[in-house]
Fold this sequence. Notes:
alpha+beta, five-stranded mixed beta sheet, three-stranded antiparallel beta sheet, elongated
Amino acid sequence: MNNIVLQKCEEFISEILDFFDSDSVRKLEEMETTLKEITDRFILSLMTAYLASLDQAIVKDKAGRRKKGIVIEQRNVKREIYTIFGLLIFYRTYFRDKRNQEYVYLVDQAVGLESYKRVSGTVAVELVEHAQESSYGESSRHVTGEAISRQTVMNRVHSLKNLKIEPAEKRSVNVLHVDADEDHVPLQNGHNAVVPLICIYEGVEYNGKRGRCINPHYISSYGKSTEELWLEAADWIYSSYEIDDIERIYIHGDGGLWIKEGLNWLPKAKMVLDKYHLWKSIRSATRKQPEDGKALYSAVLNDDRKAFNRIGKQLIKNAASDAEIEKIKECQKYLRNNWKAITIYREEACGGSCTEGHVSHVLSSRLSSRPMGWSKKGLKQMAELRAYCYSGGRVRLEHLQNNESKYSISKKLAKEAANAFNRTTAEKRGNVTILNRGKVIPMFRCLNGLRNGNGVF
């Protein structure tokens, strides 16, 4: 085995030297791409050699396996897995565990390779993080150059779990804002699904005309009940803020029943009907009578019920069809049901809202702005992933790993596997001419660092 490792090292050095041994000047881009390809191949060959050495050490450990009731079932079983260096191909031994009545690849368990997975954990994290911004196919192209299928990317997204941000130290604020709205997302069965989104933030800071929410935290999912969503919001607020210091929580939204449910879960909360939905309702009812529409808008904002009723009667009187009358009555009912949530604008400094912007930015841009159909599982996972990432979370390996049993390798076996590399001595590597000349040039530093184990390419 040590001869194989030595051979790989010599081939790598030779390939590097041959690349630079040219009459023409190497361009920077050429050096970047070619040297990366050479280095990636070299690293993959060392990984293959190490896995073979580790598997051989396990096979030789007959006494240790006998104590655990593990015997050899089949040798040289091929495994392929895509890593950050490219496709890793290696062969390992298949064992039978008599005690647990199962068949296992011990070397896979020893190095943390999950069964039936086609990509390494590091690559899987990159795929998932990229998939929350673009399609599964684009994620595969960006990370692996289409070396794996869209199905593999989707499977990794579906396997996500425990996407939860732990609050930092509790903060003290006087006012909290909670924006609540939903996106309508097409499913694969032809129906649309409602995906709710809650954003908790401390206000808006402006840079010129551009505003930015302060410390936003997003909550979203598909299939969760209204109570579960608001319980999660309440948990975040109680965990992240000094409750006694909060004077008011403003819940901004379109007045839907699921949004008003937040009043039952959040302390010191008041409902605020966002002006986008307020004006949308009035404009829909007064499209053919725009001047009266503006007067109606002013009346409700100023808490003038007399003017509101008078203008409403005038709108109905001047309506040209029964359909228009129906829209006016629906608008009147909507405004009456949310009257306090509208007049609060003149009573308290409740600020505006960003409900539509949140939905567009966090959900719609990935879930519904393109022609696609989602499975229920995929929709749930992607909504939660988007909310997690836009809250500042990063996908980590533990979000993707299964709780498979791991085979413990003793220090003795680990040392035995490493001996193939340790026995590749400096004397055996001493036949590289450029290292024996003693002339310190950039290539000498590079290769000398490789020989002594402290070089970085």
